[in-house]
């Protein structure tokens, strides 16, 4: 079997950039009545979009914060709802320098939807401070070029089995199972 391989360059779409960011934010909600105590807080209607800007991806979004509270010395309850907006700049920690065009598709996924960590009555006693966490992972998909080895002897199935370069048991034991380990698996 010949040991000399030819190489072909293939243009394909691939992940050319990745990033991840965890964020915490505090929002001040102004209820219609002076709260006595906080009974619950939840976040709904999360919407977001992402756009690549230089070496970062900017995720802009909004969500509704609902605070259930008591007032009038714990004799009545109400729900205060407020829509808040945010903008998270996510640094691309992995970038392919061999991209063929600046045009990229951006995929953003919320791996931690906005979630209330704590809701407390503010120091002035009239508002509610809501601490929120969220986390995003982003990927940029672009055109890049890869080199592929081409066997001049044809397909392996066309070559007699005795000529295959089979992996020995010893070589198999030395294989690194984390070879394709992603930085996001950490």
Report, as a whole number of angstroms, the end-to-end distance.
42 Å
Number of domains: 1
Stretches where pLDDT is under 50 for at least 5 consecutive residues are none
Strand-pairing-aware structural class: mainly beta
Within the largest sheet, what's the order of strands?
A: 5-1-7-6
Please tell me what the overall shape is: elongated
What is the N-to-C succession of helices and strands?
EEEEEEEH
Q: Biggest sheet: strands, sense, closure?
A: 4 strands, antiparallel
Give the mean pLDDT. Answer: 86
Helical segment count: 1
Radius of gyration: 27 Å
> How large a portion of the residues is in β-strands, by DSSP E?
over 45%
Helicity range: under 10%
Give the total of beta strands.
7
In brief:
With 186 residues, the protein is mostly beta strands. It is built from one helix and seven strands, in the order βββββββα.
Question: What does it look like?
Answer:
The chain has 1 helix and 7 strands. The protein is 3% helix and 63% strand. With 186 residues, the protein is mainly beta. The model has no long low-confidence stretch (mean pLDDT 86). It has one helix at residues 169-173; strands spanning 6-29, 35-53, 56-71, 76-91, 94-95, 105-121, 128-150. The chain has a 4-stranded antiparallel sheet, with no helix packed on it. Strands 2-3-4 form a 3-stranded antiparallel sheet, with no helix packed on it. The protein has one domain.
